[in-house]
Amino acid sequence: MQDTGFQNDAPVPPPGHGRRVKVAVVAIIVVAVAVVLVTNRWMSERFTESTRSRAELRLALYSGNLLTELQRTSVVPLLLARDPALIGALGSGDFSTTSQRLISFQTEIGAASIMLLDRDGRTVGATNRNLIGTSHRTQPFFIDAQRARDTVFTAAQRDAGIFDFTYSKAILSDNRLVGVIVVAVDLMKYERAWAGLQDAVMVTDSTGTVILATEPRWRGLTIKEALAARDAPSAIRRALQATADWAQQPPDAYLKGEAVMKTDARVPFRGWRIVTFTAYDSVRERVNGILALEIMGFAILLALTFYFLSRRAWSQSMSFQRESAELRLLNARLQREIAEREKVQKDLAVAELTLAQSSKLAALGEMSAAVSHELNQPLAAMKTYLAGAKLLLQRRRTEEALASFQRIDDLIERMGAITRQLKSYARKGGEAFEPVDMRFCVSSALTMMEPQLKIRVVRITRTLPRQPVMVMADRLRLEQVIINLLRNALDATKAVPSPQIDLVLAAGETATLTVRDNGHGIEDLDNLFEPFYTTKKPGEGVGLGLAISSGIVTDLGGRLTARNADGGGAVFEVQLPILGADIKAAE
Predict the structure, then answer these.
(1) Which domain of life is it from (predicted)?
(2) What's the longest Cα–Cα distance across the chain?
């Protein structure tokens, strides 16, 4: 091509070119506005649901912490009300060591505070020695404890608006009221922990009154009255920042004109509810980040459109470059925020792992109590066999003594097997199951109980079918259940002139083992399988046998029931699925 000398000149736009540029720019702007609006609505709804889900998860964690603290403390009055030292001090009037004993209990159990009141409501022992001598005869926890024989929970509001949460129980001696034990529950520590969070949290009782809240002025009010407070709470002041109503969904509530997300859940304790208020600012920030990226994309597209459609856009390119630089800064800021959020998520994952490890340690603690309880029976049998072997050796009956030593060796092996159960509790249930004939379990349990049966004259009858009764179970744990039931039957027939225990094994739709005695029967069927419930004297048992047995049978897919017999005595039934029926159902 011949050089004409005009190739560096700007081309002259054809007629109508400016109009086409304007139409293209308007079209891009219209599309950008439509995409931004649709994206804003869709992402707002999605992030709102995500924020609500996280709020519900935190709510479940808060509720679980409250319930765990309440349940853990509710057991303390049951134990202290049966303490012989406290009952003796109330009877004799000597309280010189009572406070020190309560302080030792507080250290071991981890309760907030403990008080011992006499029958007149006067404090005779307390972990806080400044309270000794004060009178509480008009307090609800003292009055309600005298009227009920069970543990009483009381939530009372002080003048400062703070609620005191206590468990109290009457202390009886020969069915006479001698005093009241009062254990305080420290729920304010959760309130202090919540105050450092972004969400506003409150807990209401069954009447709708706020008893715990991140804002102190909410206590004692209803939710409606709390939300109508004129001054913005300190927690909400941090949580709410000029939230624009871009979510396009009606807010759950308003706090001082600001839209917030309300999440509530039921605490399974006396009709309590827990409520959290979460601001929409986190949703707005996430949506704005995505919208900024879209706007940046459309800005780049608009710049390219101007470049290709008209050379006149060169004069405006610098402004677009400045806008691009600002968008890059915005993008960098968004990336930093994303990195910070990822760090928060990692911290949350570490907290969840810590909570799971705490749950495992709690389960191992319960298992340790169960193992120590189950080792008492082999130890008692070993003591009896050793005494018999010593007597046989003195009489030069060596072979019979060797037989006793062999039984002691079997008991040692059994004790080792019991301790190895700690490993099985760390695995998922069902890994150690195998087909077991319940007839052999009954025979093995009777063999285990043979030393105790020889000490007393007890008539034992057993009715076993000729055919095998096969179940899928852990043989050792099933034998533990049968031994616990036999021990309870032996204890129940101590005061009976002609003690008798009947064992009946039947196979129908389920395998049913019935253990019946002619003892004094069961007085309290409702609390029979509760941990630490026992009718034995102090030192003879801790009340874990039936609770452990019930848990084992439940793990095996069956159930353990108890009732009083018509002719006197107690009847315990262990029902387990037949192995054949399980296989047929699986097929």
Answers:
(1) Bacteria
(2) 137
Q: How far apart are CA 34 and CA 175, in angstroms?
A: 80
C-alpha to C-alpha distance for 381 and 416, rounded to whole angstroms: 15
Q: What is the dihedral of CA 74, 419, 429, 476, to 10 degrees?
A: -110
Distances from the Cα of 169 to the Cα of 74, 148, 155, 223, 374, angstroms? 10, 8, 15, 32, 30
Q: How far is CA 6 from CA 2, 163, 434, in A?
A: 11, 91, 96
pLDDT exceeds 80 at position 470: yes
Rounded CA-CA distance 136/155 in Å is 15
What pLDDT sits at residue 147?
86
Residues 472-492 have a mean pLDDT of: 87
pLDDT digits (tens, 9 = 90+) for 260-302: 678 888 888 888 999 888 776 655 666 666 777 778 777 787 7
Question: ∠ at Cα 46 (44, 48), nearest 5°?
Answer: 65
Q: How far is residue 43's CA from residue 334's CA, in Å, rounded to a whole number?
A: 16
Q: What is the pLDDT of residue 196?
A: 73
- Closest to 288 in 3D by CA, of 330, 229, 253: 330
CB–CB of 445/479 below 8 Å?
A: yes
pLDDT-wise least confident of 171-185, 326-340, 532-546:
532-546
At 552, which amino acid appears?
A: I
Residues in contact with 67: Cβ distance below 8 Å, sequence separation at least 6, in sequence order: 267, 268, 269
Least confident range from 125-134, 147-156, 283-292, 499-508: namely 283-292
Residues 6+ apart with CB under 8 A from 303: 313, 317, 320, 324
Cα gap 205→208, rounded to integer Å? 5
Provide φ and ψ at 305, rounded to 5°: -65, -45
Distance separating alpha carbons of residues 410 and 531, to the nearest angstrom: 30
Asked if the model's pLDDT at residue 447 lies above 50, the reply is yes
Residues 266 and 273: beta-carbon distance below 8 Å: yes
User: 356 near 527, Cβ under 8 Å?
Assistant: no
At residue 567, what is the residue type?
G
Rounded CA-CA distance 445/442 in Å is 5
d(CA 568, CA 51): 60
First-to-last C-alpha distance (Å) of the chain: 87
At residue 497, φ and ψ (nearest 5 deg) are -60, -45
Q: How many angstroms separate the CA atoms of 472 and 477, rounded?
A: 12
Which token pair is 287? 């949506």
**In the block, residue with structure tokens 């029926």:** 581
Do you know the residue count of the chain?
A: 587
Helical residues (DSSP H) of 81-178, grouped into ranges: 84-92, 98-109, 140-147
Going by DSSP bridges, is the β-strand pair 434-437/272-279 parallel, antiparallel, or unpaired?
unpaired
- What mean pLDDT value characterizes the chain? 77
Backbone φ, ψ for residue 480 (5° rounding)? -60, -40
Q: What does each C-alpha distance from 101 to 98, 422, 499, 542 come to in angstroms?
A: 5, 33, 41, 20
The owner of tokens 């907030």 is 112
Dist. CA 251–CA 259, nearest whole Å: 6
Angle between helical axes of 438-448 and 317-394 (0-180°, round to 10): 60
